[in-house]
Write a structure and sequence with these properties.
By secondary structure, this protein is α/β, with parallel strands linked by helices. The protein contains 8 helices and 15 strands. Strands 7, 8, 9, 10, 11, 12 and 13 form a 7-stranded mixed sheet that branches. Strands 1-2-4-3-5-6 form a 6-stranded mixed sheet, sandwiched between helices. Strands 14-15 form a two-stranded antiparallel sheet. The protein is globular, with a radius of gyration of 19 Å.
Length: 333
């Protein structure tokens, strides 16, 4: 498998160097050297939004630092959570005196290191709250939803949290509405091919050219089933059916759909999926609002896609439509 790289050991450092060079509105710093933050920080008195996670998922995580979204991001090695120091750097960078919401995926290393960083930040008189992305329906049963992984749906949570903070809400209120958004959001993905970490000699899993796996995670975590490749319509139907069965939105509900590419899937194929998903949503009496189709959360060169849905109420729709700008997403600006 061919890659455009220099020394694999320098992969993350060089990609971050390139990212901030191309986007001067982003700065790279902190004691860890692994914290991306806004070059022009938000005004004092605003709740900060900090996130973090492993590299290998661009635009997630660093790509969503910007106005109306995240204030900072701690970044780890490929598919590895950020260190305690990077997490602390992100909390400090996001702090504008009103506390910091730590918003990240439900992975053991991320939780442990951000928890420790939050304790250290408390000694700096920085108050933190935590909201976890737990949107992946394939990773645990509904009765064990607290064990679910965070995947592409966390991008929608970034938007809600960032808008609520930009409105001037306090930390408890920002955390509460982000929790509400998390409860209204579900995701599922499908993988067609593996990916390879730059420092590894082999792909992170094996799958035949004629196979697909429903529910696989963004690091290659096992899914629900593996079988022969199905048509785009069949894949779209199963993903949508699984999400609607859990969310059970009343007819006439307004929903934000996110059709996400995992890194190697052509944009054309994402629109083929959306064509079916959009029609099915309308047939179910639901109203798609501002559908998002593209690469929002990737997994190196994995081929496949995911579908996320957020069921809106008036408050969530207002926050989702509020102005925001970052290197990879712009709303209303």
């Amino acid at each position: 498998m061919k890659k455009l790289l220099n020394d694999p050991a320098n992969y993350v450092a060089e990609l971050l160097e390139g990212l901030v060079s191309a986007h001067p509105e982003l700065s790279l710093g902190g004691e860890s050297g692994r914290c991306v933050s806004r070059t022009d920080p938000a005004a004092d008195g605003k709740v900060g939004i900090a996130t973090g996670g492993g590299s290998g998922h661009l635009p997630l995580f660093t790509g969503y630092v910007g106005d109306g979204l995240l204030d900072s991001c701690a970044i780890g090695n490929i598919f590895e959570g950020p260190s305690v120091q990077a997490s602390l750097d992100a909390i400090r960078a996001a702090n504008r005196g009103a506390g910091v919401l730590c918003l990240y995926g439900n992975y053991g290393g991320d939780r442990m290191n951000f928890d420790m960083a939050g304790e250290m930040a408390h000694m700096d008189d920085i108050t933190t709250r935590t909201v976890l992305g737990t949107d992946d329906v394939a990773s645990a049963a509904p009765e064990e939803a607290e064990k679910r992984r965070g995947v592409a749906g966390i991008v929608l949570l970034y938007k809600v949290a960032g808008a609520a903070a930009a409105e001037g809400r306090d930390l408890d209120a920002v955390a509460a509405v982000t929790e509400k958004a998390a409860a209204a959001t579900r995701s599922i993905g499908v993988a067609l091919s593996p990916c390879r970490v730059p420092t590894a000699q082999a792909p992170n899993f094996e799958i035949a050219d004629t196979e697909m796996e429903m529910g696989m995670g963004i690091h290659g975590e096992p899914g629900i089933w593996r079988a022969e490749l199905q048509s785009a319509d069949a894949v779209a139907d199963e993903m949508l059916d699984r999400l609607l069965a859990e969310l059970d939105p009343p007819k006439s509900s307004r929903v934000v759909p996110l059709v996400n590419g995992l890194g190697a899937t052509p944009l054309e194929e994402l629109f083929i999926l959306w064509r079916r998903i959009g029609a099915r949503l309308c047939d179910a009496g639901l109203k798609p609002v501002s559908p998002l189709i593209g690469n929002f959360v990737t997994s190196m060169e994995m081929s496949g896609a995911s579908l996320s849905l957020m069921v809106l109420d008036e408050e969530l729709e207002s926050l989702m439509s509020a102005p925001a700008r970052c290197p990879f997403w712009r709303v209303g600006l």
